[in-house]
Amino acid sequence: MKARTKFAVGSAIIVVTLLSLAYVGFTQSKTYYHTLTELQGLQGAALHQRMRVSGNVKAGSIQQSAGGINFVLEEQGRVLNVSYQGRDPLPDTFKDGAQALVEGKMMPNGRFAADQVQAKCASKYQATPGQTNSNAPANTSSIPGTSNSRLS
Fold first, then answer.
1. Tens-digit pLDDT profile for residues 72-101
2. Are residues 24 and 72 in the same domain?
3. Are 57 and 101 within one domain?
4. SS3 (DSSP) at 133
5. Do residues 25 and 36 share a domain?
6. How far apart are CA 92 and CA 130, in angstroms?
């Protein structure tokens, strides 16, 4: 075989391998977002694909078990039993009533097996309505020659 032919065959093998790895990685990392209402209408293969579901953690539903943590998400009167068995610890903001986003798959028994849980940040970083920021400067105009300017 000529050197040019060997190079072409080797290059083709590398390109095909990289394309197949990219395709497999893309198809395995796809996740679909569904609400609890949409989730109950899914059937067939769509029900068993990887997905994200959000809702509020039902008060009193968080329970430690030997294999992980079980809790219930609720939204508009719908509920979803979730089992989290991930490697990462749950966020500090994950508690009763918190908004949570779970990622995983539906199991045949109707329970959602989550391998990732995210909790929405608490609103403690937002200003409460009607409250002003006491750290804001009293003079906010920076245009010289205006009545509020310190430089006029």
1. 999 888 899 999 987 888 888 888 888 888
2. no
3. yes
4. coil
5. no
6. 28
Cα separation, 38 vs 131, in Å, equals 39
Backbone φ, ψ for residue 68 (5° rounding): 160, -140
CB 113 within 8 A of CB 81: no
Inform me whether the pLDDT recorded for 108 exceeds 80: yes
Q: How many Cα atoms sit within 13 Å of 62 on the Cβ side? A: 11
Q: 0.90 exceeded by the pTM? A: no
The SS3 call for residue 123 is helix
State the pLDDT at residue 150: 45
HEC readout, 21-64: HHHHHHHHHCCEEECHHHHCCCCHHHHHCCEEEEEEECCCCCEE
Residues 12-39 have pLDDT tens digits of 999 999 999 988 887 766 677 778 888 7
pLDDT at 130: 62
For residues 1 and 41, membership in a common domain is answered with: no
For residues 8 and 43, state if they share a domain: no
Those residues with Cβ within 8 angstroms of residue 32's Cβ, 6 or more apart along the chain or in another chain: 46, 49, 50, 51, 52
Domain span at 72: 31-123
